[in-house]
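thread from #wetlab-drylab

HS: before we spend reagent money on co-crystallization trials with zinc ion, can we at least see a predicted complex? here's what I'd submit
DV: go for it
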Amino acid sequence: MSSPQSPSRDSRRGNESDDDYYVPRTPRRTPMACIFCRGRKLKCDGRTTCANCQKRNLACTYVPVSAQP
Ligand SMILES: [Zn+2]
Ligand SMILES: [Zn+2]
């Protein structure tokens, strides 16, 4: 009455894609206008070179919020 070694049922792990799913979060920046748009009160799209500056071939410059008084 000797039973052969029964294969131990080990729960298979590793096929779960429920691990820590890393979602690259982009830091939320406050929408701010570049100097040109701010001065003219235009709607700035916030790009590196916004549409207004691009249209006028201007250098799009942003002033960091921390630099404000
Ligand atoms: Zn702009
Ligand atoms: Zn601009």
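DV: Residues 12 and 18 are 14 Å apart (CA to CA).
HS: ok that's useful, forwarding to the group
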